[in-house]
Amino acid sequence: AALLAISSARADEQVVVVARFYPAPGREAELETRLLQSVKFVKQAEPRTIYRLHRSAKEPGVFLYYEVYPSQAAFDQHVQTIAAFRKEVGPPPEGILSRQPEIEFYRLLAE
Hints:
Strand order of the largest sheet: 2-3-1-4
Shape: globular
Order of helices and strands: EHEEHE
Strand content: 15-25%
Largest sheet: 4 strands, antiparallel
Radius of gyration: 14 Å
Mean pLDDT: 90
Number of strands: 4
């Protein structure tokens, strides 16, 4: 549902997303495996999307996605891609997250 609360970007403007995921204690490896699967799935379905997964050096229990979509339409397609990923691999396992993911949208100011 949080993914649907999208930015107010113009149709031709890039959509930049930063999302943080917090695994439940002891489930870090399980969440990492699932997130890596999602990266592979998204990269195949959306070759023009920048979709990078990181793990915090300071807090190893925090995973961060950095995502850049070329347009609002590309982001809208991503929502469908994630639905297809969940259909293929199943919903997130119960209790894998310690709290809701934090998803933020950014607008490019300068390059």
